[in-house]
Specification:
It is built from three helices and four strands. It is α+β, with helices and mostly antiparallel strands. The chain has a four-stranded mixed beta sheet.
Length: about 70
């Protein structure tokens, strides 16, 4: 597994921003480990960061628990 993918997986597990390199017409980034959309991203496609995208609606509608 290369470093970019590993960091993407770590980002998803650690409330950091992550996104899929597979571009869609409605591409978003995520910041919740439990986002159902984010969970669909395959390991080989996940990267850390926002890619200058909008935050996904599911992630935005939920607050990080204390
Ligand atoms: Zn999301």
């Amino acid at each position: 597994m290369d470093d970019l993918i590993r960091h993407g997986l770590e980002a998803r597990a650690d409330w950091a921003s992550y996104y899929s390199v597979v571009e869609g017409p409605d591409a978003r980034y995520h910041n919740r480990p439990d986002c159902v959309e984010g969970a669909k991203i395959e390991a080989k496609d996940i990267r850390q960061g926002t890619a200058y995208r909008q935050l996904c609606d599911l992630c935005r509608s939920s607050q990080k628990p204390k």
